[in-house]
Each structure stands twice: as C-alpha cells, then as structure tokens.
Amino acid sequence: MTDDGYDFFAPQPRPVPRAKNTMFDLVPDAFTAKTLELTGEHRRGKRLPQNKNSEPEVASPRPSPSVPVQESFDKDVVTDVEAEKWEGSAQSRLLIKGGKIVNDDQSIHADIYIEDGVIKQIGNNLVIPGGARTIEAQGKLIIPGGIDTHTHMQLPFMGTFAVDDFYSGTKAALAGGTTMIMDFVLDQKGVPLLDAYDKWRNWADSKVCCDYALHVAVTHWSDSVAKEMEVLTKERGVNSFKMFLAYKDVFMLDDSDLYSSFKRCKELGALAMVHAENGHLIAQKSKEMIELGITGPEAHEMCRPEEVEAEATNRAIMLANEACCPLYIVHVMSKSAADMVTRARRKGCVVFGEPIAASLGTDGTHQWNKCWRHAAGHVMGPPLRPDPSTPGYLMDLLANGDLQTTGTDNCTFNADQKALGKDDFRKIPNGVNGVEDRMSVIWEKGVHSGKMDPCRFVAVTSTNAAKLFNIYPQKGRIAVGSDADIVIWDPKATRTISAKTHHQAVDFNIFEGMVVHGVPVFVISNGHVVVDEGQMRVTQGQGRFIATPCYAEAVYGRIESREVVIQFSVYGTIESREVARRPKKVEREVYEGPIAEVKTNSIETAPPRHRNENTNIIMGDDMSADFHSRPPTRSGGRNQQDSSFSFSGDQIDDNQPRRHKIRVSNPPGGKSSNLW
Ligand code: URP
Ligand code: ZN
Ligand code: ZN
Q: Pocket of ligand 1, candidates 8, 152, 309: which has the most ligand atoms within 8 Å of its Cβ, to mutate?
C-alpha cells in the first residue's frame, strides 16, 4: 500500500471464470468435439520470438485451442460453423459488392476482392476466381476495421484482474467493428520490461480473436531499462512507451526520469506516451477527502480535478519538447488538458491527443449517482469530468484535427471487484469499458450529430492510429495490398447499448441505454468474416501480434527535418526555431580578476537542512553541492560568481537579521505608483 492509502498491487486473486451465457457453457464438449487444427502455418502474421521461461497463463475463462465459434448477437442460439465454411478456400475468397468505400481522404463506389486475408483488387466489373463468396453491400459503407489504441485486457491492477481478457475483449472488439487493439504491457515497478513483455505476449497470443500490438509502460528508470527499450524496439516489435505522471510510488516517474525516458524514446525513434496527472497532488488531496469523511466514488474526481490533468499534460509536453521527442497524450479526459494539447500543437510541438470512447460519449456526473455501483462503475483515471459539455468539446477538437486518435482505455471490473473500494474510493479499481462500443459511440456523437464526415470518422478510428504507430497502409486503409480488416457499416441502423447484450465479460456498461446509429453488419478480420449479418464467428488465437516499427513518418518526419535544418544552419542559410534554441556557448576571454572566498562562518546559524557538515558550505534544496560551491575570496568573502538565489527561495543571507525597509519618497528617476 502507498502511504496515501492506495493499494495497486495487493495480492491478486486470479480471475474467476465467468459463468455467463457463453458458447462453451451452452455446448458441452464443444472444444473436444469441434476443435479445428488452426496452426501457425495458417497465419500470415509475424510471430516474434517468445520467452520460453514466462509464467504460466492465468486462469482463462476459456480453454485456449483455436476453435471457430458462431454466436448469435442475442446469444440465444449458438451453433458451430462447419470447418470448410470457416477456413476452406471459398471462405478465403470474398467479394464485397455494391458498397461505398470510405478511406480517410476519399470515398468511392467500388467492389473489393479479398483473398488469403489481403485486399487483392478494388474496382468495378472485377474479374475474380471462381468459388468466392459474395457479400452484397448496397447502401452500406465499407470502412477500414477500427484500431483501438488503448486497452488493458486482463490487467493485474489494484488487487484484482480486469475481467475482460484477451479473448472476451477482442471478441467484443470485433463485434463492434474494431479489428485491432493496442494493449499496454504494464507490470509492477521493477519487473524487467522484457519479462513483462513476454508475459503479455503469452497471455495474448493464445487468446486474441483479432490482431493486436503492444505499448510498453516504463515505470522506473535505470540504464538497464534504457537497454531493454532498445531490445524492445529492435527485436520485439514495440515502438511506443507509456510513462506515468500519476500513481505516486507505483508507476510515477519524476520529471528528471521522465526527461530521460523521453530522450531515450527520441534516440530510438519511438513514440513517448504519457498518463498525465499530477500524482503528488492527487496523493495529498486523496488524504484530505478521507479526512473530510468523503469516501465515495465522487471523491475520486474531486481529488483530481481537471487542472491536475492539465498541469501534467502541459508539463509532459514541455519536457518532451525539451527532449525534442514526439509525445502522445493517452486518455485525454478534460477540456483543459485538450486545450494544452491544442495550444502546444499550434506552437509547433509534435504532440498528439487521444480522447477515449468514455470521454467522448459520457460524463463524470455519474460518479455522484446515488447508486454506489453505478457511480463506481464510472471511476477511472484521469476521471470522467462532471462538466457535461466536456464530451461535445472533445468531439469538436477531434473532428477538427486538434485531437487525432481514439482509444477506450478498456479496463473492466465487475461489481464485486469495484466493491473492493466500497468504504474507501482509493481502493475502487480504476477502469471502464469501451472496446465494443467505441465505433458506434463516435459515429453517433461525431458523424450522426453532424460534427464530422465519414472520412474523418475513418481517420480518427483507424487511419491516424495506423500512421502514428507505423502500420499504415497495412492497417487503417482499404487499398490493394492492405490487410482485409474491413467493416461493412450500416449508418442508418440503430442499436441500444446494454450490458445485457454486449459481448464483454463485464457486468456493467457506461453507455447503458444509449441508442446509437451505425451498426457493423459484417466484420472481416484478416479476410475472415467474424461478424456475419449479426452472427459472430470468432476464433480464439486467430489474431496475430503486429510489430510496430520505429520512426513512423507521421511522427518522426518533422523531427528528422528539424535536425536537418539544424545542420544546414551552420552555413547561416536557414533560420528556424530549432536552431535558435540550440544551446550555444558565448566565446569570451577568461576572467582574471579577483575571486571572492565562500564565507563559512554563518554555518551555525543556518537552518539545519542548509548545512553540509563536510564542506561547511551552505546549500540550497535544489542546487545540492553546487549552490555556493565556489571557493571564498582570499579575504573570506562570498564568491561574487555565486548567485545569492536558490530555486528553493532561500537566500544566502537568510540567517542575517533583516534591515528595516527605507521608503524613498523621491527616488532617482522619478516616482512610480504602479506595480511592476
Ligand atoms: O483507469 C484507468 N485508466 N485504468 C487503467 C490504467 C491507466 O492508467 O490507463
Ligand atoms: Zn493511464
Ligand atoms: Zn490505460
């Protein structure tokens, strides 16, 4: 437990297999009787080496063999799909006819031919091999499958595990039109990053129904972490690292370690990501809430108001900018934090912002709900904001290019898990759902409301993510050669979101009752029809790990150019801000005059924290031994090169009695009554 009462890594109970209405609960022996041999050879995906010594898997709600399942949306009828229908040659050939293809930059009416998981042809009157299945898409939009940039499947967190694991979480993703998730490797502070990475790969590889990639969290800093980051980028397919300004004593890095981690990301061509909240202040204010007797979920927001997020966002941007490192702000939850991103972008900083389904689709007033479970169901960090105009504001910024991608921070906990904090809000596991509903919520609040057009919808739900994480145009585009991750989207159909019908394992939905336009009628993942006119056919372990290479052009293109500009500027031909801020020394003659000596006779009267017994030199809090470290003058006076100022606010003469102020009625240069 941290000294401010939070308990992030208490002994973790293993997740309890859910006894929900699922395929394998309803069909006894489904695995043994109907297993298909879908081995690695069947996959085109890049599988990177895995650690053979990794931990055994946590209990999975489902066995791991690859099994095709067909599940109706209402889960009343559950049947298996015949083998040849699932994986046979006809199924690997698909023709989508009559729809309107929407990419981020244009829409066209054209047919699409898919074979072996890849888009092979786009056009009209295509000549295609026989035996292909035809899907009629008249009146529908054909969009790239969604990419959820931010999930935490089965995350061990706050004494428990997120209930949606890599199976139920990715199945739900597909149900909603998301064909790729990006999850976070987030282990306890001190665990080697490579071990943590292997653990996540082992959890995910056997369970994922759709493709996935990994970001890695850096929660402590050392030379070995810096080396591991290099291995992760060069050998393990990772190009993004998340650092925390919150979760004091658990995940939080201080400013100097943040700066070091940003510099390292820059060296490696990786994208630095931050969870931006001021962890110190949260720790203090949390204690204040408890002292005031406010122990319910509403205290969660009150001890981390939006300024706490905005300050940390601004600080992270400043530090990253000083490190010349591109920065990605995850889960932008407030207007003030979004304004920080917008302002920095206007000033030319390479910074990106990710609002999430929750911050775009609902608000934080629910934390004040009289029903404890309902209120706790909305607790996440940074919190949903009680200002009800927040979702619309964030959507406007997203629609107009100030924010770029959308994730969900999907990290779900059932009622009994949330109840760990029933008497103390600090123990409520932080996290909400979203992976299944992100696409529909953004369509409803963004496109249906008239704030963004379908092209922009595609940009913010897949294309921009694919570009920033360097997997474009394999993902995020409908083009010849791209992966056949495709959604046939009915913009006119509606559905009502509910925990009773969703595919997630969690027993609660923050969008409960919301009627949304925009329904994925067919979802195709790597060429497989996984949502087929409302019926689900997912295969555990069918998804692939997608390596994300460093130096994404959309991220580093500008950074590299800036460096080139710096080189050219040596000849004085190009001026730029980057050149101007490059540190330059002033050439000057050596000072040869007298040098004062440091006075040591005031040591007894200095406050104890300013005494250094070894050197007899007074020190400031933030300057350590460097403060007034120059030798005294020959006569014992203070070295005039030393500043009398310290960042702590302490002065060299703090221990000297103050002289009374002398008011000068008529100062030289005239009187001024103005404040300066
Ligand atoms: O509440 C949240 N966000 N839980 C997951 C951990 C994180 O900070 O993203
Ligand atoms: Zn976070
Ligand atoms: Zn998160």
A: 152
